[in-house]
Design a protein that fits this description.
five-stranded antiparallel β-sheet; 229 residues; Heat Shock Protein 90; alpha+beta
């Protein structure tokens, strides 16, 4: 689904996949978000009308990340530019309970939220630390050091109809020049065992290693993290 509007020197786009559009309550939620985005963007349109030599743009792009009989998950990239030194962007996620016809938080999938966050942090932090060390080694690198505390911007990722990975995205963890970190964490037995009964069949424990990628680094960093179960 594409909801877009444009003028001579401005453009607003809001896109989401057909799988989301086919669920009427989710479609309504996304259309409401598109209306809110358009309302906020009105200020940029006014700026563009008064500054014809400038161009302003904003896009909201939702991508299908997980689809199981119980859950549909989306990741989103919101980005824009408006005449500043550089553009801006932010990542987010949206998780939909199909039978319940409602949005749910990632942590709501688990009977022990603190245990789920602890499992992810235990495996995420050691590999992220190595990626940040490499980022800091670059000229003008900016390494802040400590691993962030949960909650993270986490999105379930499905393959073959089962959620097998969790993707965590961190924007500007070490400043704008520090790039965006994408951390891919395989679902292991301990995390799968914390899933609530109503969602348990959507998950499958998976072999794999934690992978941390950064837009500034030539290669992703892989490791087992602190928890191999």
């Amino acid at each position: 689904m594409c909801l877009a509007a444009q003028g001579r020197n401005w453009q607003l786009a809001f896109l989401y996949p057909a799988a989301a559009a086919r669920l009427a309550p989710l479609d309504a939620l996304l259309r409401s978000r598109a209306d809110t985005a358009a309302s906020h963007f009105a200020t940029d349109v006014d700026f563009a009308s008064r500054n014809p030599d400038q161009r302003v743009e904003e896009s909201h792009i939702y991508t299908l990340a997980a689809r199981t009989p119980q859950l549909l998950g989306l990741t989103s990239l919101v980005s824009g530019s408006g005449g500043g030194a550089h553009g801006w962007f932010t990542h987010d996620s949206l998780l939909w309970d199909i039978a319940g016809a409602r949005e749910v938080r990632f942590a709501e999938l688990f009977r022990d939220e603190r245990g789920a966050w602890a499992d992810l942090a235990d495996r995420l932090c050691p590999v992220l630390a190595e990626a940040r060390r490499r980022e800091f080694a670059r000229p003008h690198g900016n390494f802040a050091g400590r691993c962030p505390n949960p909650p993270f911007n986490a999105a379930p990722i499905s393959f073959s109809g089962k959620i097998r990975w969790v993707k965590v995205t961190m924007d500007e963890l070490d400043g704008y020049a520090g790039g965006t970190y994408e951390i891919w964490i395989p679902v292991k037995a301990r995390l799968a065992g914390l899933v609530k009964a109503r969602y348990r069949s959507a998950f499958a424990a998976t072999a794999g290693r934690v992978r941390v990628c950064n837009t500034n680094l030539p290669a992703c960093v892989r490791g087992d993290g602190g928890n191999r179960r």
